[in-house]
Amino acid sequence: MIFCRVSSYSTIVDMTTSSEWVGSARYASAGEFIRDTNYIDDRIVASADKPTVEQDNRTLWPVEPHRYRLVAARACPWAHRTVITRRLKGLEGVISLALAGPTHDQRSWAFNLDPHGVDPVLGIARLQDAYFARSPHYPRGITVPAIVEESTGVVVTNDYPSIVVDFNEQWHAYERDNAPDLYPQQLRAEIDPLIRTIFTEVNNGVYRCGFAGTQDAYDAAYARLFTALDC
Asked: In terms of Cα–Cα distance, which of 83, 61, 95 is closest to 145?
């Protein structure tokens, strides 16, 4: 499905079936696309010395160098922030990086940029294998970014907002000298509303266009997106 802006005219072109999965997004069978935001919300924190299940059923995993692999894809804008944050904080030497190829089918992101199509650290051909290692019948989208435990091949989290916050706040013992604070406490009152607006109107706005189920839903999403971009 393609969307484009040409003067004041826009149209929706259906290039797939309404039941096809792309990441965590499904083409809406009718009406507006609604994002599934139920991610695996485990956290990696400096206060944990072993994986610990909290009362809310989240697991807190310990900060430990060479334990985790960040899985991203350059084609996915949701993954960019994790790759950028890892670099700015100087964590390349303690958290390894896997890059999936730019395209995927219904089964998930594939490591088709690597020799023989297999990630050299995790030993898997598709990211879905890490999700199924955690839950054999994982029911949701196989998304990037994701953090995978290298020794077990189990996905730890795919909660992209928490991943970048934890890179910024929990890995101080391993970050580079003079690493920037990317989420300063004194600026959060300004940062948080801006992040919500960018997510709601721009980041997710593109998906509302691309996965709209009807022309009317597409037109409404298109107008909303470019209203935000033109501000």
From this structure: 83
Cα dihedral sign, 43-69-127-155: negative
Q: Is 20 exposed, middle or buried (0-12, 13-18, 19+ CB in 10 A)?
A: middle
DSSP 152-165: T--EEE--HHHHHH
User: Do β-strands 104-105 and 96-100 pair in parallel, antiparallel, or remain unpaired?
Assistant: unpaired
How far apart, in whole angstroms, are the C-alpha atoms of residue 24 and residue 143? Answer: 6
Q: Where in the chain are all domains bearing CATH 1.20.1050.10? A: 187-230
Q: Which two tokens stand for residue 187?
A: 């600026």
What are the tens digits of pLDDT across the range 60-109?
Answer: 999 999 999 999 999 888 899 999 999 999 999 999 999 999 988 888 99
Choose the CATH number for 187-230 among 3.40.50.1820, 1.20.1050.10, 2.30.30.140, 3.30.565.10: 1.20.1050.10
Q: Are 110 and 125 in contact (CB under 8 A)?
A: yes
Report the catalytic residues: 76, 207
Give pTM, 2 decimals: 0.84
Superfamily of domain 43-181: Glutaredoxin (3.40.30.10)
Q: What are phi and psi of 86, to 5 degrees?
A: -55, -40
pLDDT bin (cut points 50, 70, 90) of residue 205 is very high
